[in-house]
Every structure is written in C-alpha cells, then in structure tokens.
Amino acid sequence: MLSLAHVCLNVKNLERSMEYYQKLGFKPKFKFTRNGRHYGHYLEICPNHYIELFEDPDMDAPLNTGIVHFCLECQDLDALISELDSKGISYTNKKLGCDNTYQIWLTDPDGNAFEVHQYTQSSLQKTGGEVEADW
C-alpha cells in the first residue's frame, strides 16, 4: 500500500457541502452524474489525496460504517486557523494532543466531524512510543 487515497462521505445537500469544502481549499477534480443529474464529486485535498462526496437528500444523519473520523495534516495550524476565521468556518480550540501533535476539529454541514493536525518534533507519529489516551 502507498497511502490513503480518499474518504467517502454521504451528504444531504451536495452544493452546500461543495461550498464548505472548497472554502477549506479543496479543489473539485471530477463529478459523478446519475440519470443525468449531478450526484457526487471528487475533491482534491492535495496531490493524489481526495474526499469523495455523494448526495443523499433523504439522509437524516451521516451514515457511519465504522469510520470514526478522518484527519488532514497541516504544515501551519495557526495560519489555517486565521484562514478559517476569515472565512467564518467554525472549529474547536487548538490543543496539544496526548500524542504531542497539535489539533483542531471541524464539522461539515452534515455533521461529519474531522480533525486537522500539525506534527511537532516530538509527535509520536514521528518518534513512536506509547501514550495513555486522555479522552
């Protein structure tokens, strides 16, 4: 395996979700149609990494098939926070996780929560080791 290619989300309103994710800087790559109607979209997060959205207007709540969340890596979380503020996008307070990695959380219009984190020199993702979960 090389890397995670994409995460797929069902959304109630494709146009609303496209607007939200494009505000985060994701770029439309291609779209899906069904019976001639715009049904889904691939959005590029960074080269070769995507989020796939499919519209389900009858969805009452996000479908969870075991995926708890997805996480996006950021080089400069403070710069991203400034950008989110300028675009009116809500997020949680920045915190240093028990893995020594800074993180914030966002929630899309359909309630799909996701993490954005920035590694530090002592992030366990880089150093390895063991940590007691604090959540």
By secondary-structure content and strand pairing, the structural class works out as alpha/beta
Helicity range? 10-25%
| DSSP summary: helix tally | 3
Topology as H/E string? EHEEEEHEEEH
Mean pLDDT: 89
Strand neighbour order, sheet with most strands:
1-4-3-2
Largest β sheet strand count, sense and barrel closure:
4 strands, mixed
Q: Kindly state the number of beta strands.
A: 8
Ends: how far apart?
Answer: 30 Å
Tell me the strand percentage band. 35-45%
Please mark out the parts with pLDDT under 50 across 5 or more consecutive residues, or reply none.
Answer: none
Q: What value does the Rg take, in angstroms?
A: 16 Å
Shape: globular
Report on the structure:
The chain contains 3 helices and 8 strands. It is globular. The relative contact order is 0.19. A 4-stranded mixed sheet has the order 1-4-3-2, covered by helices on one side. The chain has helices spanning 14-23, 77-87, 124-127; strands spanning 6-11, 27-34, 37-46, 49-55, 71-73, 95-96, 102-107, 113-118. It is an alpha/beta fold.
Mind sketching the topology for me?
Layout lengths: L5 E6 L2 H10 L3 E8 L2 E10 L2 E7 L15 E3 L3 H11 L7 E2 L5 E6 L5 E6 L5 H4 L8
Parallel strand pairs: 1-4, 5-8
Antiparallel strand pairs: 2-3, 3-4, 6-7, 7-8
